[in-house]
From TrEMBL:
Annotated Low complexity bias: 109-119
One GO term of the biological process aspect: regulation of cell division
Designated name of the protein: Probable septum site-determining protein MinC
Domain Septum formation inhibitor MinC N-terminal positions: 11-77
SUPFAM superfamilies membership: Cell-division inhibitor MinC, C-terminal domain
NCBIfam families: minC
UniProt KW keywords: Cell cycle, Cell division, Septation
Family: Belongs to the MinC family.
Assembly: Interacts with MinD and FtsZ.
Organism: Methylobacterium nonmethylotrophicum
Keyword Cell division (UniProt): yes
Function of the protein: Cell division inhibitor that blocks the formation of polar Z ring septums. Rapidly oscillates between the poles of the cell to destabilize FtsZ filaments that have formed before they mature into polar Z rings. Prevents FtsZ polymerization.
Length: 235
């Protein structure tokens, strides 16, 4: 008998980078959680779709206190994908894994702090609006709570626009668009090519799975009608 040996392809490992938000709580933890609740009230969709890391280096909580903190964040719909500063051992069943070696990428501005963006050509006008003359690349976050944001190019998958007013995109919308973050229910989202990951206006949001597939790839506007989010083609 002749035995045949099947050759299996080697296992391949690929690296991939994601933009994560790092939460670094400070004592007293009750006050810090209250500030977090205030942020969520101002911008309910701020953590939607974001990867979140919990850095407890400064806090140095006991194991029981750390479990309570993670549970408190989960109750606020902020799932933690990893924990820094908790030692190199296992954190126990049901807890996020320990992480180390992360590379800082700068502060992520909160919704009331003003515009923040990775490098992109931008221009603030006198009418409380921000114009971006370059495409918004994956991993970039543009925050402008003072008014409208206009993007002359496209918004890539993994990118995010947060505006206090309306959002105008003259290319494809493939990332997240959050309009009306300053409590403006009349804000709208306009784009020339509709392929979003997430839409939000004044705290109401819709993910890609909830979007009418017949509108994908078309010019679309999004607005609120009472407590419902409406979408309609512009062509």
């Amino acid at each position: 008998m002749t035995s045949q040996t099947q050759t299996r392809p080697p296992i391949r490992f690929r690296g991939r980078s994601f933009l994560a938000v790092v939460l670094a709580p400070e004592a007293p933890i009750e006050d810090w959680l209250a500030d977090l609740d205030a942020l969520a009230k101002r911008s309910p969709a701020f953590f939607a779709g974001r990867a979140v890391i919990l850095d407890v280096t400064t806090l140095a909580p006991s194991p029981d206190a750390l479990k309570e903190l993670v549970a408190a964040l989960n109750q606020r719909d902020i799932p933690i994908m990893g924990i820094e500063g908790a030692g190199g051992g296992s954190l126990g069943p049901g807890m996020p894994p320990p992480l180390n070696g992360g590379r800082p990428s700068g502060e992520v501005a909160m919704p009331e702090d003003g515009p923040a963006a990775a490098p992109a050509a931008e221009k603030a006008t006198g009418a409380k609006s921000l114009m971006l003359e370059s495409p918004v690349r994956s991993g970039q976050a543009i925050l402008f709570p003072e008014g409208d944001v206009t993007v002359m190019g496209s918004v890539a998958s993994g990118a995010e626009i947060i505006a206090g007013g309306s959002i105008h995109i003259y290319g494809a919308l493939r990332g997240r668009a959050i309009a009306g973050a300053a409590g403006t229910p009349g804000a709208r989202i306009f784009c020339r090519r509709f392929e979003p990951e997430l839409l939000a206006i004044d705290g109401l949001y819709r993910i890609a799975d909830d979007i009418d597939p017949s509108l994908r790839g078309r010019a679309v506007q999004v607005w609120l009608d009472g407590d419902a989010m409406r979408t309609a083609a512009l062509d």
